[in-house]
Specification:
The complex is a heterodimer of chains A (279) and B (1027). Chain A has 279 residues and is α+β, with helices and mostly antiparallel strands. Chain A folds into two domains: 161 residues, 3-Layer(aba) Sandwich (D-Maltodextrin-Binding Protein, domain 2); 112 residues, 3-Layer(aba) Sandwich (D-Maltodextrin-Binding Protein, domain 2), CATH 3.40.190. Chain A contains nine helices and 15 strands. The longest helix of chain A has 25 residues. The two termini of chain A are 28 Å apart. The two termini of chain B are 44 Å apart. Chain B has 23 helices and 34 strands. Classes of the chains: A alpha+beta (279), B alpha+beta (1027). Chains A and B meet through helix 6 of A and helix 3 and strand 3 of B.
Chain lengths: 279, 1027
């Protein structure tokens, strides 16, 4: 899906991008709803559509809001793009989208890992997050150890599953050996706990509501979407800080440019400002 | 016009334009600033209220949830009680279904601690073995019913709340209930919507909520706007900051906004600009129009005077020299001062009037809106009250049924201790059991014996109906007189094995939450929050006894309406006017509800305080403008003496003006009667400066009246539906001498005048086209239109201004009677006028003679007929006195002339001369139609004989034909040496040569002179006597 940013955004971008003189040149292009200056083109960015505060798509107007969106706009602006188009990606599709070239880069709560580094180029991390566990208040679970014997849900394709296993192992609650594995549903039985995998966070959240899972493991950034007065984050759990970064195709000419711009944004506190704005 | 004057006019025009612009800008900015200040006050008030409102809404939600949960927890507890007390409990599906119906819940289950289900009334989606439902298992630890677990999965159509109560150490009763009712209540009382929709803000103002993060609109009075992006709707992101005040446009409505950030939501307080803006523009427009008219009139008048002075010879000597190059014209100065002062006073009056209207109408709009809001709230409250009472009654009836069920299944529980624990379990105040005779057998309280009353009308009597076949009886809420607590008694019949009613289970409950909620629907609570502008408030009068049901001032509560200053006529729906309460002048609007007269009132000072400063400011600006224009008008450079060509162009004496010398010696010009009546439009140059000023003023008035006419005609497109002018034209205000009635009168009078003027000019146009009779009728219709409009207008306006029109009609009858003798003549006049016209006795333009007065008919009016006697005198004849009319407009009239000839002359010779010459006379006098004819000798005396010559001519020409005839006859006789009239020579000193006969040249010259003089004097000396 292709959701181009609004004219307003584009104009704002253009103005702040290249100063008043250039803006004057760009403005007509903006007002025509064109996709920017010839030669400059659009930056197509893979973003999430369901993460409140990071990147959320409003179904009413088809626009995206959030920290990552503001970051993307700023980045495109600094790179000198006239416009950027947002393309919704999911944890399953994002890697394929990037490698097949459907998007120029991923700014989609995509964390740096050694495995991923082999596939893609990463900019410096713009946000650090960790996997947390969300439980229903009515389950009266207040610490990680109470989850022994319970079911923990994750979304397929995320880092959370192996990290959870490692955590159980580390705390000595489990021997970390999968007993039974269901390839289709992605559920794994360990000796003292059970792992269920879901296709999306929405499904995972519903499973939590229904009681099918006792806790949902998610990235801290994503958890916000699904937190309400009836749910809490387990305070004594937090694993493997994940560093979100902009991913580009291995060896892409964009990679060094983006990396440089992200670095400069980190340096001049632009990123901090944006994080504060959305927090 | 001289060059100097032209320059001066241009300078003046520029000055007037600048003044008008300055005035317009200042007025507009002043007015805008003042209303913005007013808005700012409103914003401050609402912004201060908002955090509390948010808190209250949250507390409300919490309380409602608590109450709901308590209710269903007792249901679960009642199952546990049954199990513990052997009151018909069995762990079977059938029993569960029975209990489900009894408890009126969605599902009843019995489950083990591990979540496995022992018995159930229906299938459930919940898997109680999950940790999700751990909270239910808490009942095992505490022994009390558990806190609820709510599962909300709209995708799976699963919205349930679960409550558990401990049966034994391994079993619990679970109640499954859909919290629909709770959610609806929360939405009604605790949601953003419920909180914001009742906020009153200025006139038509509202509050919208925007999420601070996503900028989505979470509340807007327009449902369609909810969920849309605030930025898309035109709100600039830079404006979304706490405390920011700005203008924006949402959906083509210009809004004046203030942002208030509470938690994660921007509350945008918005007041639409348009409504007040229209009123404001009109106010500024009217004042500006008056100002321009006055300044222009002053400037133009003085220009006219100057122009006039240039034409006349007087001038230089009147100037006063100031300095070397300037001179002051005192004549112009005097006039300018007089006019300026008068204009200033007029402007102040107009401004004061418009500001009053503006302030009052804004307040009226606000009052009206608040009244509507109260009306809506009261209606909603009434509905909510019913709904709440019904819901609670249902719940308590169910509880009572449960008790009856328990008691029936285990009659041994009818002891005080057991009933007491049952009452505690079910959360009721007390339980009473009665036998088949209505005597109390046991109760949960210390009360031992009581018998239901057998007296019809007693409150407990109704419970006896339960013994007569009724299943349940719910007594209405009753308030304990001494404690003020609300109690409700509910009874359910107890049946024996055969199903015959043999007793009653009665409970008493204290519906505290209901009590609290009902309290919030009380009139005082509703009116307490109502603010109508700064200082405005609401109060209510009880309809039943006419006492004050609510007033912000507690001292006034409970007093009689008449005691606080309300008269009977104030107690009416739709009343909207000033009242005096507590020695305070209030502008109040009334609403009649089922139980109350609700008033929204604002003290006069609170909304009128702008009026005087604004008027004074306008006056000062106007004064400054006059001061600026004054020197331009009166001062003049001393010019180099230039030869003035006397009477430069075709400037002629003002023919239609007469000069009047007043008693104090001043000379004034005035229009002659004929000029006034015949609507003779004279040349602009002919007019005196005063007349020119009059014309200019008439134009301005005409323009003003026409604009008002247009405004009234297109009121729907021009003013919004909520505009104050729509209100004024809608006739909803109070009849009486108030500003709305006055304004409406003026506006409708303007319409009537315009219509009348259009009709009159149409008739005038028609009369020019039509013949004499047509003209007569047109003139009559014209005056009928004029008088009809005036009388109807007067009558209507009097009605609007509060004069009782019915009485007026009746009194008109009495007056008619009383003055019928006086009016008799008037009626006769009118009737005669009609007869004159329809019988065609004479028409406009006819020459008639009435009672010795002869003249041309100028106009046949309703009451009088105007006749021009041919000498510029206008005879006003009352139609009734027009009798014995001689209409001299014959087809042909005749001129008759007698010539006296001395008897000495030979008659035959004279007759021969006549025979020869009469033909040539005909040729020389073209006005003669036939003739002249010799009529014969009409008189004969000892010295002279008189012969007569006649000629036919038009009646209008008669005078001149006679004069011409006389001249011709004299010339003719002189030629033939016949001397008309006796020549008497007293003495003859010298023999003079006989007068020579006139030469042909002399004759021609005389003829020419004669013609010329005739033409020149055609309008003079035409009265019959001078013929």
């Amino acid at each position: 899906m292709d959701h181009s940013v609004t004219r307003r955004n584009a104009c704002r971008l253009a103005i702040s991008a290249t100063g008043a003189a250039l803006a004057a040149m760009l403005l007509p292009a903006c007002s025509n709803g064109n996709s920017g200056m010839p030669g400059k083109g659009k930056l197509s960015v893979g973003v999430r559509s369901d993460i409140v505060g990071f990147s959320e798509r409003n179904p009413n107007n088809g626009k995206y809001y959030g920290f990552e969106i503001d970051l993307t706009n700023e980045l495109a602006n600094r790179l000198g793009y006239g416009d950027c188009s947002f393309i919704t990606v999911t944890p399953e599709t994002r890697e394929e989208m990037l490698s097949s070239g459907k998007v120029d880069c991923l700014i989609a709560c995509y964390s740096i890992s050694d495995e991923r580094k082999k596939l893609f180029d990463f900019s410096p991390a713009y946000y650090t997050d960790s996997v947390i566990l969300v439980v229903e208040n009515t389950s009266l679970i207040q610490s990680f150890s109470q989850l022994e014997g319970g079911t923990i849900g994750t979304v397929a394709g995320t880092n959370a599953a192996p990290q959870l296993a490692a955590k159980f192992l580390e705390l000595g609650l489990s021997d970390g050996i999968p007993r039974q594995q269901d390839a289709e549903s992605g559920s794994i039985d360990y000796d003292t706990w059970h792992l269920s995998q879901y296709a999306s966070y929405a499904e995972l959240s519903q499973a939590l509501e229904a009681g099918d899972v006792d806790a949902m493991a998610t990235d801290g950034a994503i958890a916000k979407t699904y937190l309400d007065g009836e749910r809490t984050v387990l305070p004594d759990f937090g694993i493997n800080p994940q560093r979100y970064a902009v991913a580009t195709k291995k060896g892409s000419e964009l990679s060094p440019k983006i990396a440089a711009e992200v670095r400069s944004m980190l340096k001049d506190k632009t990123v901090d400002k944006l994080i504060n704005k959305w927090n | 016009m001289s060059k100097r004057l032209k320059k001066k006019s241009v300078a003046l025009a520029v000055a007037v334009t600048v003044c008008a612009l300055a005035m317009g800008l200042l007025l507009a900015s002043m007015q805008t600033r003042l209303s913005q200040e007013e808005y700012a006050l409103e914003f401050d008030r609402v912004a201060a209220e908002l955090p509390d409102l948010v808190k209250t809404a949250r507390a409300e939600t919490k309380d409602n949830t608590q109450t709901f949960d308590d209710l269903y927890r007792t249901r679960a507890a009642s199952i546990a009680f049954m199990a513990a007390n052997d009151a018909g409990y069995e762990a079977t599906d059938v029993k569960m279904a029975e209990l489900k119906d009894l408890l009126k819940v969605d599902n009843v289950l019995v489950a083990r601690r591990d979540g496995s289900i022992i018995a159930k009334a229906a299938d459930t989606k919940a898997d109680f073995s999950r940790a999700r439902f751990n909270q239910l298992r808490q009942c095992f630890e505490t022994g009390k019913p558990s806190d609820p677990v709510e599962v909300d999965l709209p995708d799976q159509d699963w919205l349930m709340r679960y409550y558990a109560a401990k049966i034994d150490d391994d079993t619990m009763a679970i109640v499954e209930q859909n919290p629909r009712e709770l959610h609806a209540l929360v939405k009604d009382t605790g949601s953003t919507e419920s909180m914001l929709k009742n906020i009153s803000l200025g006139s038509h103002g509202f509050v919208l909520a925007v999420s601070a993060k996503t900028h989505l609109i979470t509340y807007h009075p327009d449902q369609n706007m909810i969920g849309t992006d605030a930025l898309d709707n035109g709100i600039d992101i830079s404006n979304l900051e706490d405390g920011k005040t700005f203008f924006t446009s949402v959906k083509n409505t210009s809004l004046y906004c203030r942002v208030k950030l509470v938690d994660d939501t921007y509350y945008i307080l918005a007041i639409p600009e348009s409504d007040t803006a229209t009123a404001r523009n009109i106010t500024v427009g009217v004042i500006l129009f008056a100002f321009i008219a006055i300044v222009a009139a002053v400037a133009l008048y003085d220009l006219f005077v100057l122009a006039d002075d240039e034409h006349s010879d007087q001038g230089d000597h009147e100037y006063v020299k100031i300095g070397r190059n300037l001179r002051f014209n005192p004549a112009v100065g005097r006039r300018a001062t007089a006019l300026s002062v008068a204009g200033l006073v007029l402007l102040l009056a107009v401004t004061f009037y418009m500001q009053t209207l503006f302030a009052l109408s804004s307040q009226a709009t606000v009052n009206r809106e608040r009244v509507e809001q109260i009306d809506q709230t009261l209606k909603n409250n009434a509905m909510r009250e019913d709904e709440l009472t019904r819901q609670y009654s249902d719940h308590y009836a169910t509880t009572c049924h449960i008790i009856a069920y328990i008691v029936e299944h285990n009659p041994e529980l009818a002891t005080r201790a057991d009933l007491h624990s049952l009452a505690e379990t079910l959360g009721v105040e007390s339980i009473y059991l009665y036998d088949g005779d209505g005597n109390m057998t046991s109760s949960s309280t210390s009360q031992r014996s009581y018998s239901l009353s057998t007296k019809y009308g007693d409150s407990s009597y109704e419970f006896r109906s339960l013994l007569g076949g009724k299943d349940e009886y719910i007594q209405p809420l009753s308030i304990n007189r001494t404690t003020g607590e609300t109690y409700q008694y509910i009874g359910v019949a107890l049946y024996d094995q055969d199903g015959i009613a043999d007793g009653i289970a009665q409970i008493a409950v204290r519906p505290m939450r209901l009590e609290e909620m009902l309290k919030s629907t009380k009139i005082g609570v509703v009116l307490d929050g109502i603010k109508a502008g700064a200082g405005g408030f609401a109060f209510a009068i009880e309809k039943k006894d006419g006492t004050v049901a609510y007033h912000p001032n507690n001292l006034l509560m409970g007093k009689k309406a008449s005691e606080i200053g309300l008269a009977d006529e104030h107690l009416a729906d739709g009343f909207s006017d000033f009242i005096y309460i507590d020695n305070q002048k209030l502008y109040a609007s009334c609403l009649e509800t089922d139980d109350y007269y609700v008033y929204v009132a604002a003290p006069e000072d609170s909304f009128m305080h702008q009026r005087v400063p604004l008027t004074i400011a306008t006056g000062i600006i106007a004064a400054i403008c006059f001061v600026l224009i004054y020197p331009l008008l009166t001062l003049d450079t001393i010019r180099v003496e230039e030869k003035r060509s006397k009477r430069e162009d075709d400037f002629t004496a003002r023919r239609h003006n007469i000069t009047v010398t007043t008693s104090d010696g001043r000379i004034k010009h005035s229009e002659s009667a004929i000029g006034r009546w015949l609507n003779i439009s004279f040349k602009w140059e002919d007019k005196t400066p005063e007349q020119k000023l009059g014309t200019v003023l008439r134009w301005f008035t005409g323009i003003g009246v026409f604009i008002v006419f247009l405004a009234v005609l297109f009121k729907d497109t021009l003013f919004g539906p909520r505009s104050v002018f729509t209100y004024i034209l809608g006739n909803d205000w109070q009849r009486g001498l108030n500003i709305f009635a006055l304004t409406a009168s003026i506006m409708y009078a303007c319409v009537a005048l315009t219509v009348c003027a259009i009709a009159q000019s149409l008739l005038r146009m028609l009369s020019n086209v039509l013949g004499a009779r047509g003209e007569t009728i047109c003139r009559l219709l014209s005056s009928l239109t004029k008088y009809g409009t005036l009388i109807a207008m007067l009558y209507w306006c009097l009605g609007v201004l509060g004069v009782d029109t019915a009485t007026l009609l009746a009194s008109a009858g009495i007056i008619t009677l009383a003055v019928s003798f006086g009016a008799k003549d008037l009626i006769t006049d009118i009737l005669c006028g009609l007869f004159i016209i329809f019988e065609g006795e004479f028409r406009v333009g006819d020459v008639i003679s009435v009672g010795g007065n002869t003249g041309t008919v100028m106009e046949i009016g309703v009451r009088t007929t105007k006749i021009n006697d041919g000498n510029g005198n206008v005879l006003l004849l009352r139609n009734s006195s027009i009798s014995n009319v001689t209409n001299m407009t014959k087809l042909n009239s005749y001129a008759s002339m007698d010539i006296t000839i001395p008897v000495g002359e030979s008659l035959p010779y004279v007759e021969k001369v006549l025979k020869d010459e009469l033909k040539s006379v005909h040729d020389r006098v073209p006005a003669i139609i036939e003739g002249p004819f010799y009529k014969g000798v009409v008189d004969l005396s000892s010295t002279a004989m008189t012969i007569r010559v006649v000629a036919t001519c038009k009646e209008t020409d008669r005078g001149s034909v006679m004069r011409s005839l006389r001249r011709e006859v004299k010339l003719m006789l002189s030629r033939r040496d016949i001397a008309p009239y006796q020549l008497v020579f007293d003495h003859c000193d010298a023999v003079e040569s006989a007068p020579k006969a006139a030469t042909a040249e002399e004759l021609a010259e005389a003829d020419e002179f004669n013609e010329e003089q005739k033409l020149a004097s055609q309008d003079l000396g035409n009265e019959p006597l001078n013929q």
